Structure formats: structure tokens, C-alpha cells
Fold these 4 entries.
Entry 1:
Amino acid sequence: MSMLYRCPLCGLALHKQEHAYFCDNRHQFDIAKEHYVNLLPVQFKKSKDPGDNLAMVQARRQFLASGHYQFMCDALAKRIATDNPSTLLDMGCGEGFYTSQLANQIRTQVHGIDISKAAIRYAAKRYQDCHFAVASAKQSPFQDHSFDAIVSIFAPLFVEECLRLLKPDGLVYQVSPGPRHLFELKSCIYQQVNLHQAPQAPAGMHCVDEIVLEKQVVLTEQEALDLIYMTPFAWKFQPEHLAELRAQAKIVVTLSFIISALARDAA
């Protein structure tokens, strides 16, 4: 299996030698004991510890382990598998839940990157079937045209970087919130809830096809709290909102997703 990494400092290909990656300019990046590599140089960081903190990582992992999002993950894997990619990148992979699921279901070479060191450490420790790196999706440490497929699940989509990384016939699979995603939780915060708008294909790309998924689930109080704390809602929820949530006989929440397959426009 070939390594796809390039040096984030000079752009030359990285080569693995025992417990580190090196480029021909002798820049060195050590492999952590959890089997990930940090390819986010300190000068590229906007803060000391960018990305999700450990509390958010743990909340998301606990909620995803409940299986409520599994129907979306299965639909995504099934759609990607129809194109039989040999290499796949999960951009903004977080703690690696989806990354590992895709690797298991599609049986391909899967890489995951995230700017959160806490998330990547968590991922690499648990999922030995993927390659994880601390890295920026905006300046990703991979060689040009390395991937048949790029996945972006509730993460910013850096289009120019995706086009650089994609092989000529590669696709980006973007997962966005559907119209009524988490409608009930939003209703606890806002008097009037605005529905999510359907995503538009970014400049330079077009939508090949789209899958819309939606269902309602009943959550335990702890699952609802984990769901809140893994989203930006964590900053909006006040004690009175949590009290309203706890007072409900059943915590019913709508889960809604749009899976878009995006291809580069013809030259």
C-alpha cells in the first residue's frame, strides 16, 4: 500500500521509516504510540488546541455509539460502494466513528484527518483499520489527485482543496442536515425555527445525485444531552431549555440528512 502523505512544510512526498515520516528535505514527523501522525505544524494553528475539545469528542462518541445515526452511515457507505473507490479521505473525521464504519463496509484504503488532536488520538487508539493524521482540511497533507472519494460529514467543504486531492473521475460525498434536522431541539431554543435549506453545489462542481433521509427517534435524557453537546447547540442551551427538555414525557427528535455526490465540472 502506497503512502499518500506529503510534507506540510515543503510539499515533498513523505516516506515512512520505522516510527516516523520523512521527506527528502529531512523534515520529520513522528508517529504517536496511538498510531497517528501530527501533520499540523504549530505555525499553521490559529489556537493552541484547535477543533473540538475532549468533552465534545466524548459526547459525540457516546451518542454515535447509540446507533441513532447508523441509518445515515449505512446509506452513505452503500452509495460510495457503488463507485468502488480504492482510496477514500474523511475530511474532518472527528473521533473516527464514520471513518471506521466506511472502512469496514467498503473495504478500501481510508484516511481520516481532523484539526483536533484529542479527536484524532481517540480515533487512532480505537480504529486500527484506518490511517489518521492531525491536519487541516484547508491545507491537507496529501499529494495531488490521491483520492477516488472524499467524504465531508457536517464539516466545512474546502472546494479548491477537494479538487486538488480528487482523481479526475473522483467524487465528493457531502452529508448535510436535511430540512427538519433536530427540529425539536431547536424548538426548545427558538420561538420560530427556520428549516435547513437544501445544499447547493459549490462553484467548480455539480451534483451527480442526492439522497434524502429522515426519521424520528426517541432518545433517553443522556442521549439527548450527548446530542446537544456534540453540536453548536451546546452554546445556546440554557438551564431553562434543559428543564423543558427533561419535562417531556418522551424526547422525540427528527433526524434528517441529505447525501450529495459531487463531481468536478468539465474543463
Entry 2:
Amino acid sequence: MPTKTPVIHHYPAHQASTQPPLLFVHGGYSHAALWSVRLIPYFQDLGYNCYALDFSGHGSHPGDRLNLDDFGIEDYVTDLATAVASLPVEPVLIAHSMGCLVSQRFLEHGTAHAVAFLAPVPPTGTGGTASRFALTMPDFFAELPNAVNGAANEKTMRTMASVYFSPSLAPEETVQYLPLIQPESEKAVAEMLTAPFRIARSRARIPALVMGGSADQVFPASMLFFTAAVWNARTQIIDGAGHMLMLDPQWPDTAGKLLEWLESLA
């Protein structure tokens, strides 16, 4: 179980609104500040109260990462349950990558107003991605430790850009996002590999959206169908976006499609 209370960041709406709050759930190798670059300011301006969760062992300060490898997916689920319970009303969950898996596990016993899965870990887990990268992008595994530990060089930047970002984003521009990444729990990484072997429980009956980028190298857009089928969800593909579709040059399209969906919930 987590050894500290998860950190929940609040970004108040810039104008009064009756919209449900948005709770942003980050993915692996990152932390809550990921959302404050583009999407949170966008939705604050539109009258949405925004919250962002740092999973245990995650945060923008190195001290937040103590004992990181002690935490697994179920610990992150507990963090999310704590965050949801702390809000005045049920939020809309907006999750990315590993955060989508955590949100799905939470929604087996908890609930929310609605949920958006951005570039979700597919029901088949991450084994296929790891195997594909080993064959086609072997430099990724060599450069990932440099990226998450602040030792990035030009080769690191180009490798990470080719995997995580849109082809339309120059590799040198990704340097601005280095503070948003960090190491990930080895326990959580292993659990994502074995995700398909876990028996799913019941799921909350809430509106769901599945979104991904057409240029996502981590979880290709063709994989979105499997998550959407499980949740009877709408699927939205952002043309030209990569795995980090909330940071890519296509982020206004991501934000706009999210807004359309949110407004359809009313």
C-alpha cells in the first residue's frame, strides 16, 4: 500500500461553471505536471475545475520518487480512489497510457461521471509493444534510462521523439518536455506486461471515450478498438498525433475533441 497520501493538484476554473470537475491521471514515466502545459489551462478557461493526481512515487521533485519500485498498479488504484473521494462531486476522469489501466482497475469497484482514455494500454498489455521495439527500435531501451534520469543527449532526444511524439515535432523541441518525465516503478512496468492474465471484474456503466494518435508508435491507433469494445466507447483518432497527443502540435485537436465529448455528456 502507498506509504504517503497521494498529491492532488487543484487548478480552479477561471469562470463560474456548473460543469463536473476534471481529474487528470498521468501515465507511466511521467507525473501530474504533464497536464498543466496545454490541457489544464485550456479547460480552466472554459470554466472547468481541474485536478491532477501524482501517483505514489511520482512528482516533479526527486524526493517524491523515494521507494518508487515499491509501488504497483493496485497502489496507483488506491491513489486514484483517494483522489476521487476527496472531490466534492464525481469527476470526469481523463487518463493517459498507464493511467488508463489504473482508471479501468479503479472503475471495477469505483465510479466517476465519465472517463476518457487517451492512448490507453490495450487489454493485451504492453508485451507486444516491448517485443516490437526490441526488433525495430533497439536504441529505445538503451536511451530510456538517459531520458528519465536527466542524462539525455542528442541521440536520446531523437530516439524518444521518434517513439513518443508526432513526426511533425522536431526532436530538438522535445527538450522542453524533459522535466515532465521520470523513472517508473519496475513493479508497475512488470504488471503492465502481465495485464492480459488478470481476470477483469465488473465495470462502472458510465460514458467513455477512447482517443489516440494516428502516429502513435507505442500503442498504434489500430489497438484502440479493443479498449473501445470493452467500454462500448466512442473512438476518436487525432490525425498526425503521437503517443503524447496532449503535448504534440496536434494538441488543439485533442482538446477540441475532448470538449465536444464533454459537452455531449450534458
Entry 3:
Amino acid sequence: MPTPRHEIVRRIREGRTFLVAAHASPDGDALGSTAAMGFVLEALGKTFTLLNDSPVPPQYGWMELPGPLLAAPASDDYDLAIVLDCGDAPRLGRLRDILDPARMAVIDHHLGNPGFGAVNWVSPGHCATGEMVALLAKDLGVPLTGPLAEALYTAMATDTGFFSFSGTTATCMELGAELIRGGLDVGATGARIKNQWTVGRVRLWSEALGELSLRDHGQVGLIRVSQEMLKRAGAGPEDCEGLINNALRIKGVDAAILVRELPAGGLKFSLRSVGAVDIQAVAAAFGGGGHKNAAGGTLSLPLAEAEDVLAAAVAQAVEAVRGA
């Protein structure tokens, strides 16, 4: 029986028309994987449409795409919808009600993905969905060069903290070397990824980090971002990307929490940890998901209450490791 990876390769080879989608509010891995898959299909002479419930984030406006990123397909005439970096169907946003699960291949590396497609290649052992797309490209005989290489590097670099997180794999590093051998300018691409800050982001980070608090005897760092803070800074949700990692830079902090108030009420939370501290289980307990050291979700609670609830749960995860 073929593996999901081989089945997806077969369907791509035999198919004619494809949709390529990823989770709403795409990060570097989601958008990079989307672009990369599009470039792979383009190299194979396939017809494809790139989809997302959200527009291209401003910080990735430089990224070359093989086609426009649309909110919905022009028709229902397609052979396969390839859904990337999406931990569950709701993360597709409005696309969830448009895409047909019977004609869907899910490619993802998040723990807890229920497998909501007809074919599901879910592999938490891979550091990024971009790594998985790179392997598919190699299976299909598509060289990892040009804009495809830039998209893959963006996907893998952003999801591994530029190859510094514990989930960074040997395969990922080997693929990075192949991208460089194929002509990727790491310096130029890295600068495009990193040097996209707005003044609003600087102001937001200044205020948020200035109010950072420590819990559990300094082992848990907590950052809050309210709607008022976003308004004062002239910043948007995209400006919170990477903010949480600063809490882990504090000596003695094993886990970090970021809570961001949503315009319509409730909040989005992000969790990060180092070493053996498993915060994926914490996120799952609140209906979220992710990885062992990086997870998140949403809560229908006021900021202050959510801070206390999450801090207590994360502290338990930290103490479980410290006491082991």
C-alpha cells in the first residue's frame, strides 16, 4: 500500500488542475509552502490556483508567487486541493466550506492534525511543511532553484528560528545546503525575511516588552497585547509575529505565553518552550494545537483571566519537567 507521500506524488503526476491552500493569516511556512507548491506545479505544466482566506501579509509582500493569491477558486473544476500547514479544517477559514474533502490532500507537520482530507501526509517529525514540499519536489524531479528555492528557504527558516529551534532536522539542513548549491542567495533572502519591520511594530514591541511579567518563580514569561496597545502603536496582528520569543531570552525562563486580544472579543494565545517542556499538551487542553515547543489557540476569556489560567497550566508543564 502506498504511503500518503507517494499517493500525493501519484495524484499530482496524474492530475491536471489543482488548488493550493494553507491556513488563514499565513505565516512564513504557510505562504512559503503555498508559493513553493505552485512553482512545483508550474514546472510540471499543471493548471493551478493559489488560495487563502487572508491576503499576503505585508511583511511577505516581497515574495514572488507563481500566481495571484485568491480568496476563492473560480470554479469547482479541479482534480485535487492541496492543503498545506493547516492543523485542522477550521484554520482554513471560509475555504473550509468551499474545498471538497473527497478531493483534498493534506500536507502538514503539526501534532494533533486529525487528517481531514482524502489523503493525509501528517508528519510532526518534519521541521516545517516547506521541508515536506521540498521532498515532494525532489520526488517529482523539480530542481530546487530560483523562486522555488526562495519560497522553501522562507518556509523552513521562519519555522525553525533560522535553524535554531529544537525541531530543526538534519533533512532540513541538508535541503538548505541543496538550495545554496542551486544558487540561493541566503544573505539577500534572509534580509528580505527579517528586515520588514514597521515603526508600528517597534512601538508595539517596546510597550509589550516593557510590561512583560514573570510567573512561577521566574520560569514562565508572559506578554500581553491588547487592542488598545495595537491602536496606540499603529500596529496590526502581523506585528506580533516573533514577539513571544523574546520572553525565552530571559535567564531562567523555560516557557513563554503571549495573549493577544481580538477585535470581536476573546483572544489568541501563543505558547513557546525550551527543552523537554511540552506546551503542545497545554494548548490541546484549551482546544488548540501545535508542536511540543510551539503551540497556540484561542480562548473566550478576558485578557487578565486568560493570563492567570494559561500561566497556571504552563507552570504545571514546567514543574513536571523540573520535578522529573
Entry 4:
Amino acid sequence: MSIVRFREVAITARSNDKCPVCGRRTTRSKKFWQTISPFNRLPDGTPKTRDDINRELKAEADAWEPDHRHAACIESDGGAA
């Protein structure tokens, strides 16, 4: 059995802000990715191109809103967002 590896298209989003509880600066990052494959398709059924994927990843990264609280602040805050 052979292994087929599809090429990954990825972007990394970073966000710098202050913790709303203690006020310390925080940095959060997240990787958004998809693969270029015949199974990754647009709603009309055609396979996605690198440009299609990049557009979707950019929109997903722009909509991302990270939680800038520290682990200790989450515990002291009772886990409320």
C-alpha cells in the first residue's frame, strides 16, 4: 500500500494584547491550514486551487479572536470568558 501526501497550504495568525484580568501582555498564535487535494472541493464541486485556499485561510484567520487570559487568570476568574 502506498502513501499519498497532499501539499499543505498554511498561514499563521498572531495576536498581541493584554490579559483582561491581570493586564500583562500576551501573544497568541494559531496555524490555519488546508491541503491541496482532489477531495478538498468548492461548493460547486471543483477542486480548490491554492488561491481559493489562501482566500479561505485569510478569512478564517481574520475572524479568529483568541483568549488572552493566562492559565492562572482563567482559574481565578472561574473560567468565565
